[in-house]
Each structure stands twice: as structure tokens, then as C-alpha cells.
Amino acid sequence: MKIPFINDKQSKESIVYPEGPDHIAIIMDGNGRWAQKRGMPRIAGHKEGISTVVKIVKAAVKCKVKFLTIYTFSTENWKRPKSEVDFILKLPKEFLHTYLPDLLTNNVRIETIGNMEGIPASTREAVQYAVDRTRHNDGLQLNIALNYGGRNEILDAMKKMHADLIDAKLTLDEVNEQQLSNYLDTAGAAEPDLLIRTGGEKRLSNFLLWQLAYTEFWFTDILWPDFSEREFRQALEEFRNRKRRYGSI
Ligand code: FPP
């Protein structure tokens, strides 16, 4: 069932939402457990996870978040049973097929991070279509991390940088943190201000290893399909009360 994205009633509300953080990254964990607790196959949890993605994208638009990066499929997720891998990799197409009109209406721009070459062609084409269709939108940028791994991203960046050094497009003196950032999949995007991980685990699981250096972390035991705008706003509220010192005092 398609859930409403931003309905008329909500868009006419005159609530003023506080702004920031600019970039939120989310590890959407707990889909499998959510389904198993209900005696359903794990894939039912992933399917339900799409509804949460829709709710959180909608909340992020309302909160004027500039970038939302969601960990949809990691380079390590290939170790799962093939049937589950196949199912997860079909979800981006399903999500975009149903919600692209709403994403367009809400000025959302779609981007991807990760190695798209390893992804099934029909998913890759659906995602590329959405990237192209939303290219000129300047509202929320939704980064879908697909076949993404932080270590792999850094290695790829180093290889590209090495090639540019050999071609004399870059000198060793010019290599610095900013330069390396420019070679990552997230080039041009602000680094995440806030990382949310649902599902009770407290680890990074190879997500945005370079980019999360000064990010604030917010963990919850709530499983991704149960996560809602309420907890999302709570995370934002706590973030706004934190003092970010970036190594200073
Ligand atoms: C981790 O939970 C979740 C994933 C590996 C898949 C996440 C995918 C979605 C939420 C749907 C993506 C939607 C879009 C928009 C493309 P888990 O399976 O590890 O859960 P568990 O820890 O309970 O086993």
C-alpha cells in the first residue's frame, strides 16, 4: 500500500520547524528481527523498511535537512542468502516506482553512493532514471548507499588519486584531506552532522568511515520498521543540544 508522502493537511500546517542538522546518515538496522518477532520471513522486514524510509524522508523535508544518506546495501551484505540479497536489491526500484512523483513534488534530489556496477541492471537503470529526473531539484538530497563500503570507497579514492598523480593532474604537495574528500563518492556533500543507527547495535559496519570523523552518533534499540518521525525528531533535538568542539575546548 502506498502511504501518503506529504498530504494537503500537513503542507498547510503553519508549524515552524527548527532547522539543522544539515546532513543525517542512517544505518537502518533491525528489519530481519522485526519480521522474525512476528513470525514472518526476514524479507517482510525489509519491505516494511521502505515505509519507514518514506516517513523519514518526509520528516527530513519538513525539518529542512539538506542531505540524508541511507545505508541500503553494504559490500558485506552479499554474504546473506541469495534470496534475501535479490529481494533487497529489488527494493530501490520498487521504492522509486511508487514514490518518484512524490519525491519530484517535494523537490528531492536522488543520488547514489557505492559501486553501482555490482548491482542488477534493472535496479541500476531505475535508480539512474531517478537520479536523472531529479537532477535539477535543490531540496533534500537523498543519497542511497548501494553496494557501499567505507574501506572500499577510500581504496577507490586512493587509486583514482594515484592515477591523477601519475598523469600530473595533481602533485604530491596538493594531496591533503580536502583533496581526498574530493575523490570519495560523497564529493561535494557536507560531511554528516548526525549518524542515526536503529536496531540496538553500536557500530559503524563500514559506513562512511572517512566522513564520520566528527559526526555526532545517536543510537536506538528501536528496529527500523518501528522507527518513526517521533524518534527522528528526538534525535535531532538531542543533536541540537550537543556541543561540537572538533578537538578544540
Ligand atoms: C539491515 O537490517 C537492513 C538492510 C541490510 C536493508 C535495508 C533496506 C531497507 C530498509 C529498504 C531500503 C529502501 C529503499 C528506499 C531502497 P537487518 O536485515 O540486518 O536486520 P537484523 O539486524 O534484524 O537482522
TrEMBL record:
PROSITE patterns attached to this UniProt entry: UPP_SYNTHASE
Catalytic activity, EC: 2.5.1.-
Q: Which Gene3D superfamilies match?
A: Decaprenyl diphosphate synthase-like
Q: Indicate what this protein is called per its UniProt record.
A: Isoprenyl transferase
Q: Which PANTHER family match?
A: DEHYDRODOLICHYL DIPHOSPHATE SYNTHASE 2, DEHYDRODOLICHYL DIPHOSPHATE SYNTHASE FAMILY MEMBER
Annotated binding of Mg(2+), by residue: D29, E216
Q: Which residues form the active site?
A: D29, N77 (proton acceptor)
CDD domains assigned: Cis_IPPS
Known partners and oligomeric status: Homodimer.
Name of the top EC class for this enzyme: transferase
Q: A Gene Ontology molecular-function term?
A: transferase activity
Cofactor (UniProt): Mg(2+)
Q: Which family does it belong to?
A: Belongs to the UPP synthase family.
The UniProt keyword set, sorted, is:
Magnesium, Metal-binding, Transferase
Q: How is the cofactor bound?
A: Binds 2 magnesium ions per subunit.
Q: Which NCBIfam families match?
A: PRK14830.1, uppS
Report residues binding substrate.
30-34, 42, 46, 74-76, 78, 80, 197, 203-205
UniProt function note: Catalyzes the condensation of isopentenyl diphosphate (IPP) with allylic pyrophosphates generating different type of terpenoids.
